[in-house]
Amino acid sequence: MNGSARQVAAGDSRRATIREVAALAGVSTATVSRVLNRNYPVAQATRDRVEGAMRELGYVVNAHARALAGTSNRTVGIIVSEIVDPFFAYIARGVEREAARTGRLCLVCCTQGDAKRELAFVDLLHEQRADVVVLVGGSVVDRAYTAELTRRAEELHAGGSSLVLCGRPSLGGRVPAAAVEYDNEGGAFAITDHLLTQGHRRILYLGGPPAVSTTLDRVAGYRRALELRGVTPDAGLVHTGAFSRGFGYRRTTELLAGGLDFTAIFAANDIVAAGAAQALEEAGVRIPEDVSLVGYDDVPVAQEMRPRLTTVHIPLEEMGRQAVRLATPGDDGDDGDDAWRAPTTGVHRLGTHIVVRDSVAPPKATRSRRTRSA
What we know:
Strand order of the largest sheet: 2-1-3-4-5-11
Number of helices: 15
Number of strands: 12
């Protein structure tokens, strides 16, 4: 142990420096930097000596200094609308697990549905030199917003970072941003068609902010299924609003009180479905005997409801993992030259499928006709 190491070990309150680490390991400061930044191949024996010296000296990386020097902080920023919503939480878990596998730290930002806060968080994460910024969930359908996000994607790429859109539409092939999508409209089409094949024609669509891409795609799939089965879509059966349990409960209560005629509810997500189910129960309406109910996302509440909810499964955690993989191609946590990489672009699409449980049955009139014909 040299003098510097003995001084630090003896309880000196000052922080060890990179020069002291290099001296103790018998290497140059450039080699220590390469070990820290993982941006150049280093022999395993040399890496072991450097890491041993860091442990002995209690060396801590100065993240702010690295950022000022233009070096990545090996972090992944996740921007979500609502952190307690299972849709966002499971995607975030996938991002965090993949980031941890490659030695990166995650920073989670919550916008509470505010598009301006979303853009502000992108700026903040850029300032923090995050390797990857992952935007999760539907986007506001607005030309000015898209232009602002496109500009930020270009700025991130120019600074050596990547923007990945997760669960929202791509910004286009020329923008240096990748996208991980799922077949949102296809899932809505399939679940609506499932209700139609059971004999339902008066299907209430319930929930989701009207100007968000997720809602627009699900309503489009719902309408396309109706039209292909020869059912004219009724605007009076489409009630958008929010992706919340409270909205599902309040709007279902209001529609039941107003006497709206429907035999099935397609809830925009499983949380909305849980609220609708509570309203139906309080009104004495049985599921599925009186009204069938389906959801979207396949989060745990779908299996916890009674009856268990028929819904659309999205591979949420895998979407999060893929978002990090797209932005860090070939990075498995081992040494490699990632000082430069090509623009991260393109779209990776994952499939959806229906999970049939207990919340759907033919409407009463159809069941009566079948009984008489038997």
